[in-house]
UniProtKB/TrEMBL annotation:
Protein name: Carbohydrate ABC transporter, N-acetylglucosamine/diacetylchitobiose-binding protein
UniProt keyword Secreted, yes or no: no
Organism per entry: Streptomyces aurantiacus
InterPro entries named among the record's database cross-references: Bact_solute-bd_prot1, Chitin_NgcE, SBP, TAT_signal
Main location: other
Length: 482
């Protein structure tokens, strides 16, 4: 697995590449326009579908048991073994079917011509630097609606539908506009404030639930020569991993929905102002590691694992990515963001968690039922446990951790999800409006504010301007929470 990353690995492989498909941080630009024109002409292939099989208790999607199946997996930080293991289950259940399995780091280069010809594979892990634009694919009717999969009996318990076995937000993330579910996100990422439990214990401190307590912990750390916070200063769109769920905690999830919907004045909500002012206080009081605005994600993570700063906003891939520099006794932990005070709308524990690793079944695939059946197998407890134990990530299956020895970060993440209960939020800016989230809100707004070059009021005004411009831009596909 290793701790590769999109920045220090020119192939753009690595956990971040995968998980960021949910966060859609867009560290590498995706040449979507070429794909747009290509998809528009994707009608030259044959529309011959394989015949339906016989629907039985063990074959609820009526897969044709002798029809070939083709799977293409992105070969990145998660590797491909988890998918190959699930393929072996398909082959066991359908021994007459010839299954072709391949992997690539260049999803778009390899598969775009096949979409053009109308001969795409049956199941694709559409991830990595060359991820295909799913909004474009859906709007060009190139994807299969996965509702039949979601409504099928789950692999382990026929009394439960597949949709009832999934973690919060997975189904909604697969919808782009309205009801069809076009995408099945297979990995599950927890975002929040990451820290060393050992470092916190050494300060005789507990994780702070209010902002006054947060400032007190940072003051305590400063006396020992430790900064309170660091973050990826060159890529400040990491800051929202803890800031966005804090905004929801303070003002309610509808504040984030309004921001996602690009509503006028959404950023001027009092909860946004309160949270921006709170983060700005970290700068003003000197609680941010000196030089942070010039650090990339690896440098900031390294400074943090070396004990130079207590807290860092990040996603659950950090456990794997920072493994090389993380001391054995670091005791990695994650928490939901601190709030302001007891007047917050949502309880402490409100956290951002969402899907990553998007799988799609092309509309023109010959064996769409087989593609969906392969996903049904992957969403079984056994496949999920296999994924979690081998790649240190939760899957979309809500469970699959019993009997596995979890790493400290994963264990802490599971506990954080348990604490959150229903209070899991999933801001969509990062997968609906990549440039807005990354360059404008992240670099142009939050990055400038955290470096002390903009006040919270100035940052909010600037960010609201960016959001208004995006809302008026007819070249951008617009989405709304239903």
């Amino acid at each position: 697995m290793g701790s590769t990353s999109a920045h220090n690995d020119r192939e753009g492989v690595g956990r971040r590449d995968l998980i960021k498909r949910s966060a859609a941080l867009g560290l590498i630009s995706v040449p979507a326009m070429g794909f747009l024109s290509a998809c528009a002409s994707g009608d030259s292939g044959s529309d011959e579908k394989v015949d339906k099989g016989k629907k039985t208790k063990g074959n609820p999607l009526a897969v044709n048991e002798s029809a070939p199946l083709e799977i293409v997996i992105f070969d990145g930080g998660f590797g491909t073994k988890y998918a190959e293991d699930a393929k072996a289950v398909y082959e066991k259940n359908f021994p007459k079917a010839k299954v072709k399995f391949s992997s690539t780091q260049k999803i778009q280069s390899v598969l775009q011509p096949r979409f053009n010809q109308g001969t795409p594979p049956d199941l694709i892990d559409n991830s990595g630097a060359e991820q295909m634009d799913m909004g474009v694919l859906a709007s060009k009717k190139q994807l299969t609606d996965l509702t039949p999969l979601l409504d099928a009996p789950s692999f382990d318990d026929p009394a439960k539908k597949v949709r009832d076995t999934l973690r919060p937000g997975i189904v909604e993330m697969g919808q782009l506009d309205g009801d069809p579910v076009w995408i099945m996100y297979y990995a599950y990422t927890i975002y929040g404030v990451w820290y060393s439990q050992k470092a916190l214990d050494s300060l005789d401190a507990t994780y702070p639930e209010t902002w006054d307590d947060m400032l007190a912990v940072c003051a305590k750390a400063k006396k020992k020569g430790i900064a309170g916070w660091t973050y990826a200063g060159k890529y400040p769109y990491y800051v929202p991993f803890s800031l966005y769920p804090m905004i929801a905690k303070v003002g309610g999830r509808e504040v984030l929905d309004a921001i996602d919907n690009l509503e006028p004045n959404a950023w001027k909500h009092p909860a946004v102002k309160a949270c921006f002012e709170a983060y700005y206080e970290l700068f003003k009081k000197g609680y941010i590691l000196k030089g942070t605005p010039g650090l990339d994600h690896i440098q900031s993570q390294t400074a943090w694992t070396e004990g130079k700063a207590l807290f860092i906003p990040n996603g659950s891939w950090v456990e794997n990515e920072a493994a090389k520099t993380m001391p054995k006794d670091f005791d990695l932990a994650v928490s939901a963001p601190s709030g302001i005070d007891s007047s917050d709308k949502m309880p402490f524990g409100t956290i951002w968690a969402s899907g990553g690793e998007p799988f799609i079944v092309p509309a023109k695939a010959k064996n769409t039922d087989g593609g969906m059946e392969q996903l049904r197998i992957m969403l079984s407890e056994a496949s999920s446990k296999n994924f979690t134990s081998s790649v240190k990530s939760l899957s979309a299956f809500n469970g699959g951790t019993d009997g596995i020895e979890l790493t400290p970060g994963l264990k802490s993440g599971v506990a954080a999800l348990d604490k959150a209960g229903e209070n899991v939020v999933n801001p969509r800016l990062q997968d609906w409006y990549v440039a807005l989230q990354k360059e404008q809100i992240g670099v142009g707004g939050l990055g400038e504010m955290m470096a002390g070059r903009l006040t919270p009021v100035e940052a909010i005004k600037k960010i609201q301007g960016y959001a208004d411009a995006a809302a008026k831009d007819d070249n951008i596909q617009h989405y709304k929470h239903q």
